[in-house]
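Marked as duplicate of an earlier ticket. Keeping the data here for the record.
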Amino acid sequence: MATGTLRFGIRRHRVPLTLFLLIYLDLFHCQQFIIPFKAPSDCGVEEFFDISRLSCICKTGYKALTTDKGSITCQQCPTDKPTVTNDGFECIRCPASVSDEGKCLCPPGSVLVERDVNGDLLVEARCEMCNGNGPAFSVPNSSENRCERCQASFINTSCVCNPPNVLAGGICFPPGSLSTNVNPSVNFAQLKFSVQSAWFVKNLYSSAAACLLLCVKQGMCLQVFSNLTACQALGNMCVMNMHSVSGVSTDACGLFNTIFRSKAALSSTQDISYWRVNLPWLYYGDEPGLASRVLQTDPVPIGFTFRGRNKNTDIKLIAAVYNIRGEFLRWENIGGGNLQLCPESTTKQAAAFSFGTAYQENCDLSVTELVQTYPEPLFYDVFMDLGGGENRKLLPLPTLVYNQQYNGRFINQESMKNWYLSRRMFLVDALSGREKSVNSLPKVIRVASSIKIRFQLVPRTQEGEVFPPLMTVAYRDVLITDIKTQTVSTTFSVEYEMDQNEARIKTDTALGVMGGVAVLYSLLKTVSWKRRIASPLIDAETMLKFLLFYAGDLANVFFAVTVGTGLYWLIFYKAQQFVSVLLPLPAQEEQFVTYIGCAFALKAIQFLHKLILQLSVDVFFIDWERPRSKASRTVQATGELKRDPSPVSIWRTYFVANEWNEIQSIRKISPTFQIMAVLFFLEVLGFSNLALRDPWPTLQRSPQAYTASYSLTMRYGLAATLWLCIGLLQVIFFTVFHEHFVEDKIRQFVDLCSISNISVLLLSHRCFGYYIHGRSVHGHADTNMEEMNNNLKRESESLCGQRGLLPNTDIQTFQVSLTNRLRSQYDRIREPISRRNGPSRLRDASSGNPFEQSIRAYHTMNHFLGSIIDHAHPDMDYIVKDKLMFERVIGIEFLEPSEKSIFYNDEAHSFSDVLFYGNEATLLIFDTLFFCVVDLGSQSFVLAAVLTYVEQMIFRMIRIALGRKNLVNKTLVDKRFLI
């Protein structure tokens, strides 16, 4: 019964009106295309399943009581009125024979009358003969319920089509008018040739002829008997030709579209204008912008939720399956391997239809196995099951075939406004490429190399609404050369997207605003730098310095925005109940990854800039120790004894220099613990699973379950946040606990200076730096153990003065802002040391031993700086004051040291700014970005951790080695004594 034939008649005046209404409705309203679900098993004993309508209709001898699109109720006609009227709603007694469809059948040339002039049903139908002679020239119309004047194509003397004319569909054609020439070729555009398909040669014309609707040139259409299976078979051949439309009207799609247009005046199926009576639904239409209206106008009438009592994450798809001959096989639930060619476990394949889980499976398949498994293609009309219990509804899935051509253009590879949406698809076609016979080896096979189902979230939805999903299919043409060794790659994926424009605008706005603030902050740093080097001119060096400052501040802006963005997606996507946000697609993450790259590059510039500054700091150790006794020596000329002051020991200076060398690379965190802790959380505890592109916030996953790909956005947000949190906890632990109860190397160094009777002057800028006052309150530090212990005991019992620079104060560390005069004198004294460390060609040979010059310069500098601290030079004197809070915040000094230098009290020990210790924020962010960049490139946290550790060790060794070299050059400490 599924391949029965139906009759339809069309009146001339209905055509323009119907076309107008169709166009009007398409332009101003986009249909939802929801149809009721009916399976053959749902049809009652009084019904049968119509494969073209995908619905149940009444059997012969049964009338329809009610109808609601595809839902009908049938009742058997009584024995006294056993025949159903043409409209199907009443029963009547026939005057003559009955047709195979169970309708009254009148003799040729007569019409069936079932109602009187008032529309009331007759007890028994009548057959009225039409007068075929002049002047009436009337014949039954196509519905055989009315006499109409015969067509102009008939002989004028009567309505009989006499030989050799051909009568077809109520029209009298002259001999040769019906062409039997069809184009049975299949175009394989990727290989740039066509194949005369044996299947098309055998079945194309017969299928088209059995389904054809003929029209005369005046535009009036009459339908012949349409075989439903033949129409489906013709549609299948068009699908095998990639739905492509060309100027050739005799190929499969050309014949299908001809028949489609001929049925324009007929009623549509399931109230869908693109689904014509008796035909399969292959196209949505060719109106401009139709694709966007279908895909982005009306949401699917169901919502998705990730958790809660109304949890709904199941994507229910169902397909009407047809064979190559157009026979309806079954309704088939999509969820196993029916659309997935890759052999995977059922559990993993089912994950593709869990909403929110980004699914992708790739594999290489043997061409031999494909030909053996799919000797004939199966065709799928895919629908989304909307549920509804007994009133189940289906939503057709629009299909986008990448290989579809329109007059030679691959229109579906262009912008959406040019897309031609279609319906039916297949997986493997090993039949159309057979040339000689349908049983021969195919010359070409066509495989669905990529099937992608895309869901798009409705903007600003709070109930998990999505637009109709789009199925995208890309086919690959495989030329058979060595069938035993050839393989073909295939992919099946499900992806989810939302409009990212709003998020992108917010991100760019944040970058713009914070970038503007960074400009101002960099300008303040540049002004501060200019004041500290005592240079009022704006030159190229100033511009370069501004750019370096701005690079660091802009890196912080990029870092803050990217970490915030990654954390936002991680929290809101994983924690949401009703779906309101979906992750950016990999293609949409490119800009985000670019921002991360910018942050890393700019932070690397800032880090290298600070490293170079630290390696060029001027350092000098001021030794306050004075000789305590005089040693005896014999004068050779006279033989007399002479007492000279005993030399001051250099070991204290070496000891302080060694300690300074050791603290140059210490940090507020343990890099090794940092890396191990991050790896422990990510890999051992499974925190990395939080970055998977699925909605489940679980840390442990079953090995048998499908593992989605990682979201770069969430992976970066997770890794960066975890690294920062562990680093911040370490900083808090070291600052609050370790430094107070275990060891504080910075304060220990200050104490060591006091015990050693050595002060330290550090100049990070030309006229700005730091001073550590290490002058011993006991006057001497070069003493024995007993005296040292007594001195420490007296100091602990407050029996001596305090260590501070000013009387009765404990402040030993200062920020110093020097006058130009003092700095110039400092440079003049250092000149011999600079010449010694410079190129040999710049040294003055007549100036004597360079080492002796350096020794003299050292003693001169020691005496000069000591006298400055003791206020011995009124023209280079200094004052001590507190720094304003605002000055500390913005890092700039309001007072310029024009007459006197200024020593700012600094209890925070900010001299650590010239060490790694005082730049922990920069180091921590740089390590974070380095770790994340390596991970994003390799998708391996372990490799990123190893390379980050190597990077930390390399820069630590560089800091130690070059810092030691700078210390040797600036302080005259022999490098052999730096351990």
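See parent ticket for discussion. The chain has 20 helices and 42 strands.
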